[in-house]
Write a sequence for this structure.
């Protein structure tokens, strides 16, 4: 009798349970498509043989194929069959982090010597930004982050999901297609003292517009005067000038001015390690004791999220940067001047992009475009912020199978000798009556 009752009860509760379960995800609506990675999805689904993808910022060779750098191939040959697959520590590869800090803070940085930098390996640049945003939220829960307009779209998602309130500051002037320096400085001045500011260290995405050295000095001065905290996202070190050392100049100016700062670094672009997800988050602290504490807290944030970062990409990076010969090869492969070395033109990342800027502009001018396209060659880094409207971008996609983000950003890394004429012609067709 007793067992009969308990059977009935359990039967009833499982019916109830089934009803509950079937409604668990009923209120879940499909998420909005990602404005950047959604473009790749649409491109892949298009059967047209003419299609061109200048959406995501992924480097392609002049045949439109993904590039693996020779230094990476060589590092993989050296690693093959020797590395073990043990967990890394929560903070990742100590060797990789050490080498990565040198790139940003300088080979002989006093901050590295004084152990004032709390640094952990991150899941590429995105993971570094996210870890910092979570750290900011944990220790300054009432703080806000000032984000440039425009910025990489995912910055908004990152600080939103970390529950940090977002504010914006002026950056780009659509009229001049350059920096809106006066408005930017006003926004820094008018923000409440002690605000967080997100800055792109070089090759600003999506605009390709960076402050000049003089302007960086003024920005640094004003941020210091207001007691703001600068957080740098450096996803393109080497892509602005072709030289990682020169591309670190904004960071160096801030360091010289005595800021404490945060920094996200990524090897996705400058080492072509996109899918390996290898990067670094660092926070410059007042002293070693503080750095130890901050690092331990960053690790504690990482532990319940992903426990520890992946090992293979970190090993590639530390193998390259830890070996003088391979590091030299890497610098050659990133840099712009192909006269100085024998690396194939395809592998000169910055150089090929600069060549394509000239080619795109020249093609548009030859077609007799009534518009000015000077900004294509004035802007730097991976992207051209073309000025195309969302409607013009839609026409490019619908009529010409050309895929780019709706803000008119063209990933110059996807432009090739083979498609630049087609791209220019299509842009001319959708803009000539504008
Ligand atoms: N920060 C900026 C400014 C970026 O443009 C990107 C990548 C990242 C961080 C993150 O890169 P990582 O996590 O791969 O290291 N932006 C790409 C790709 C290239 C993307 O959207 O994820 C872009 O097309 O904008």
């Amino acid at each position: 009798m007793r067992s009969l009752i308990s059977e009935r009860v359990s039967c009833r509760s499982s019916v109830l349970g089934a009803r509950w379960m079937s409604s668990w995800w009923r209120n879940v609506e499909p998420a909005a498509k990602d404005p950047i990675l959604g473009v790749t999805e649409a491109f892949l689904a298009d059967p047209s043989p003419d299609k061109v993808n200048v959406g995501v910022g992924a480097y392609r060779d002049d045949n439109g194929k993904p590039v693996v750098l020779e230094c990476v191939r060589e590092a993989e040959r050296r690693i093959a069959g020797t590395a073990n697959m043990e967990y890394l520590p929560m903070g990742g590869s100590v060797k990789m982090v050490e080498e990565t800090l040198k790139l940003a803070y300088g080979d002989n940085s006093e901050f590295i010597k004084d152990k004032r930098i709390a640094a952990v390996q991150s899941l590429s640049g995105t993971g570094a930004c996210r870890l910092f945003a979570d750290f900011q939220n944990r220790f300054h829960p009432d703080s806000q982050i000032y984000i440039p307009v425009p910025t990489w779209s995912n910055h908004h998602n990152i600080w939103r999901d970390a529950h940090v309130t977002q504010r914006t500051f002026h950056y780009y002037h659509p009229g001049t297609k350059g920096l809106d320096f006066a408005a930017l400085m006003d926004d820094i001045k008018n923000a409440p003292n002690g605000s967080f500011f997100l800055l792109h260290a070089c090759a600003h995405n999506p605009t390709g517009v960076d402050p000049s050295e003089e302007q960086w000095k003024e920005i640094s001065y004003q941020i210091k005067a207001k007691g703001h905290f600068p957080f740098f996202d450096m996803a393109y070190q080497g892509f602005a000038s072709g030289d990682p050392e020169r591309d670190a100049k904004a960071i160096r100016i801030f360091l010289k001015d005595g800021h404490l700062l945060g920094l996200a670094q990524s090897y996705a672009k400058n080492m072509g390690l996109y899918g390996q997800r290898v990067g670094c988050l660092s926070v410059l602290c007042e002293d070693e004791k503080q750095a130890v504490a901050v690092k331990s807290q960053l690790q504690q944030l990482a532990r319940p999220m992903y426990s520890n970062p992946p090992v293979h990409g970190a090993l590639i990076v530390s193998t390259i940067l830890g070996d003088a010969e391979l590091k030299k090869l890497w610098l050659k492969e990133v840099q712009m001047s192909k006269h100085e070395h024998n690396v194939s033109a395809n592998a000169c990342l910055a150089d090929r992009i600069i060549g394509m800027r000239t080619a795109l502009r020249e093609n548009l001018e030859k077609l007799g475009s009534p518009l000015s396209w000077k900004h294509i060659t004035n802007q730097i880094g991976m992207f051209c912020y073309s000025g195309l409207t969302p409607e013009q971008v839609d026409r490019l996609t619908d009529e010409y199978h050309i895929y780019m983000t709706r803000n008119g950003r063209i990933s110059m890394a996807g432009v090739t000798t083979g498609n630049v004429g087609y791209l220019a012609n299509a842009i001319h067709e959708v803009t000539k009556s504008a």
Remarks:
- The chain has 18 helices and 13 strands.
- Residues 36, 56-57, 124-126, 152, 154, 200, 205, 233, 235, 266, 268, 274, 279 surround PLA (CB under 6 Å).
- Confidence is low (pLDDT under 50) at residues 337-342.
